[in-house]
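Supplementary Methods S3. Input chains for the assembly prediction are listed below.
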Amino acid sequence: MYEFDWTSIPGALPILGSGMLMTLRLTLVAMVVGILWGTLLALARLSGNRMLGWLAAGYVNLFRAVPLVMVILWFYLIVPTLLKDWAGLGAGTDIRMASALVAFALFESAYYSEIIRAGVRSVPRGQVNAAQALGMAYTQTMRLVVLPQAFRNMLPLLLTQAIILFQDTSLVYVIGLADFFGAAYKVGDRDGRLVELLLFSGAVYFVLCFGASLLVRRLQKRIAV
Amino acid sequence: MSYSWNWGVFLSPTPSGSGTYLGWLLQGLEWTLLLSLGAWVIAFVLGSLLGVLRTVPNRWLAGLAAGYVEAFRNVPLLVQLFSWYFVLPELLPRGLGDAIKQSDPLIQQFIAALLCLGCFTAARVCEQVRAGLQSLPRGQKNAALAIGLTLPQAYRYVLLPLAMRIVLPPLTSEFLNVFKNSAVASTIGLIELSRQGQQLVDYTAQPYEAFIAVTLLYVLINVCVMFGMRWVERRARLPGHREGQ
Amino acid sequence: MSMIEIEQVSKWYGQFAVLTDCTTHVNKGEVVVVCGPSGSGKSTLIRCVNGLEPIQQGTILVNGMTLTDPKTNLSKLRSHVGMVFQNFELFPHLSVFDNLTIGQIKVLGRSKDEAAARGLKMLERVGLKAQAEKYPGALSGGQQQRVAIARALAMDPICMLFDEPTSALDPEMVTEVLDVMVELATEGMTMMCVTHEMGFARKVADRVIFMDHGRIVEDAAKDDFFGTPRSERAQLFLSKILHH
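Predicted structure tokens for the full assembly:
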């Protein structure tokens, strides 16, 4: 049988910790940008403007049809060129983090927009009528009446998507970034203790995600009342 | 931007001499399809079984299924894949583990990815099936039992056929997810579609053509699956029931 | 001889008592109507008779078999006890014909031909032979309930349980279902019916049971019940039902 040796983990904690910081940073930025951009996409689809709706639908469906791994690689390819052309950055700059941030934000916005669109549609039509009867314009109706109610309804789904996103950030492994998983893999590879490090990282992810999902469930119950 | 497009690259021969780069892509497509369909079969069967277990009046079985779902849903797919590929052979009895490690790497990669995707997706299928079963009116189960069907028979002939119809749309999106998630297998070296795309980038210096081709193939898979599932949905619709009922 | 014996049955969810110390019986060939205000436990009681609801205390015997005995094969027992539900509960993914044969084939082990013959005969009996190939969703409520009765009859039950069979129906469809039930009763079928249809009770019932708050308040021969109900609550209930 395999003999476990966990001794390389304590010494690697600083590396793993900074990896976790990168994971959290990716998650947070992608979530915030994704929700903002996703809201705009959802509103574009609900606006009734054909052209806008069609563009937004195309964007969302394209991103939802392609594997995340491909999206990460795509932006790793595109972002450096753009940065070089527009910002005049030298070839030596490490743009992996920037490209990953852009990739996740744009990819997640497609998923967030679907959640938000469903949330907006869950607000009864009568609410819109009532707002309009008070003389509110479309943007006021959305901002003051519909979106606040919609966000309340979909908060659990948005948070659940954030947990999925947190797990998915591990895929930056494909462009060699040392997020939490990447760091664990590197340490395991270096010390010949891949088994232990993989199991350890799995356990950490499980504890964090399971804990977070319990909190979301509790929140869901409170909202439902 | 000074990029020189060259779509002819797909027809040029590969360094190994046999075949073209297009051949590489199609081979990748084949592995992607094989892996995804195989994983879906595992996920559908195992997931349906777990979904049923979550609703049976037995605390141990329901708890077991719930534990499975939490375990597979709260660990990243990549970590699961690496565990199947790197960790499992180490933890098996030495003889068996060595036999696995000495087998053809392509087979090793494929089996690990197949089991990983199958078990991962099963947890998600389980939750959908459970939701479908729980949404059925309680009277259906009672009626099935009242004519003398045993509980397994009631599930087999009445509850599952009804629940499956209800959860067909979410199952479709899980089915699509399998194809997308299969790209993760590129990280352990399986030469599926996205891996072949990366190979093309490395070998041809025509990254845009390679990625556009791969992206279009994924979109194509997506479109085919959606049309296929729409056909299934039409076939499964209950006569005398209006849509959305 | 008693077909159904209910002895000191109690049932509760947590602190809340749904049935308290219920004792009654249904003899072979007898028609017993169970009535009472909503929430009185009458539907729960009838569901206990074929084990769809567990009980915490007491015993129930059907055709001499003890329901609460873990050795009793519940599925087998249920296959002999026909049950008709408030919401019909036909299987929507099966045609009317398949609804009638599935139990015969999968439970009784009859051949397809045998099941088909028996099923169609029962369908004819409720006047719906022409609808065999249709799906439940295409039928009216009254037709669905008649199919549900035919489904139960196709199993050759030794007794029939009716759980408010007409209360989910539009008023104009109640009669067609009651007609089938009256016919069954006059043929000598043992029946236990939870219903508010007092006309039906007057016409065919042998005994009437009145329940309130999970207790059997009155259990009397039909004429006694309609003539001089002993409890005030039954009197009140009857006057409300009859005057509306």
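DSSP finds ten helices and no strands in chain B. The two ends of chain B are 54 Å apart (CA to CA).
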